Amino acid sequence: MNTREIFLQHVAQTSPASLAFEIERAECATLFDVKGNAYIDLIGGISVANMGHGHPKILAAIREQLDKYLHVMVYGEFVQSPQVRYAQRLCSLLPSTLNSVYFTNSGAEAVEGAMKLAKRYTNRTRIISFQGSYHGSTQGALSVIGDEYWRQAFRPLLPDVWHLRYNDPAAIDAIDETTACVLLETVQAESGILVPDAGWLKALEKKCRATGTLLMLDEIQVGFGRTGKCWAFEWFDIVPDVLLLAKALGGGLPLGAFVADKKLMDQLTDAPVLGHITTFGGHPLSCAAGLAALDALVEERWIDTVKEKEAIFRMQLQHPAIKSIRSFGLWMAVEFSDAETCKRVIDYCLTVTPQDPTGLMTDWFLFAPHCLRIAPPLIISEAQIKLACERILKAIDQSKL
Ligand SMILES: Cc1ncc(COP(=O)(O)O)c(C=O)c1O
Fold it and tell me: Is there a contact between 290 and 251 (Cβ–Cβ < 8 Å)?
């Protein structure tokens, strides 16, 4: 069996049609397969590689930590400088009420921990989340995602979860003194980049404050500069009680976090003590890599390039087959009439021929399979954007044949 066949046989599969792309190496915004073919990376491992692949500062930070220690103790017991320095740096970029960071292994675990914190803090059970939202695949996170197709096979899930309509004023009326938390993506990702009205988010924040309900914003996919500001909530003039982070947080290594005010977070120290336990959460290598990635993002001023790059994509991607482009920074959903067309375009982009030697790695959205995902590393060059757009337009024309 070759490596691909062994992958299909021995690495558990979750789809009848995985990409099975055989990766050899990755550099900046380019992926290379085992045959040496290059592909422009338009998805960055699904919004993880914001600083691209192999950023020298991230690699140096990993190497430096590698020589000191790896895992030494479960979360929260030892003073580990990569965690300490990263928590401090994150808090320095956040509003003053977001000053305590709980590091987890993943986004879903951040969601789990945050929901526990909300129940513990408010002594309430009801969780309001939204149709079309994605928050992860563990059972708690699955309970709050907004699509019945993905939930149904795994019941019973968490009780007392209300799935309301995103951006709907009626959702605000539903929040009351029995609601523990309202959990939402600041901008919905997997529904194909749905941006809510600023007034709706502001009213949501106000109602949460009035009823003692925790406002929890999931910025796991949207965070770290992708929208043209460090955090998406900055666009809407709101501040969450709890902020959820993951994906780009670890600079390419696994890491998640929920961030809140210390007096809120301290609830996890009492009744029960060790209110959330994790062995590997906040791994020193992940924290060292994440801190280096965040420093590079800020110091190299990549966030300032986002809006211009978004505009180039939007200007270049014009074709009668494209129904719309929904975007919010370097994060866009290119909408086709149906999922089959989108799939054909994605497949064609991946095809490398002597005439088209540079491939394109892209994807669709979980709840919007008719939309093509564009969420490249923020370091993608303008020349690569233009090349990628040419390739997409060609794919639309060629894949019809
Ligand atoms: C918005 C959002 N929340 C939560 C998650 C779950 O993160 P993880 O896959 O690290 O568990 C994801 C993952 O795609 C996500 O996009």
Answer: yes
Determine which residue's CA is closest to atom 8 belonging to ligand 1: 107
Question: Tokens 């380019």, residue?
Answer: 30
Global pTM value: 0.97
Distances (CA, A) of 85 to 60, 74, 80, 139, 153: 16, 18, 9, 32, 42
Pick the CATH number of 56-299 from 3.40.640.10, 2.40.50.100, 3.20.20.60, 3.40.605.10: 3.40.640.10
CA distance 237 to 158: 31
pLDDT in tens, 168-226: 999 999 999 999 999 999 999 999 999 999 999 999 999 999 999 999 999 999 999 99
Q: Say yes or no: CB of residue 375 within 6 Å of ligand 1.
A: no
Identify the CATH number of the domain defined by range 3-54+302-398. Answer: 3.90.1150.10
- Which ligand 1 atom lies nearest to the CA of residue 133? 1
Indicate the domain borders of the chain: 3-54+302-398, 56-299
- How far away, in angstroms, is 244 Cα from ligand 1 center? 10
Peptide bond before residue 169 is cis, with ω within 30 degrees of 0: no
Return phi, psi of residue 365, to 5°.
-110, 145
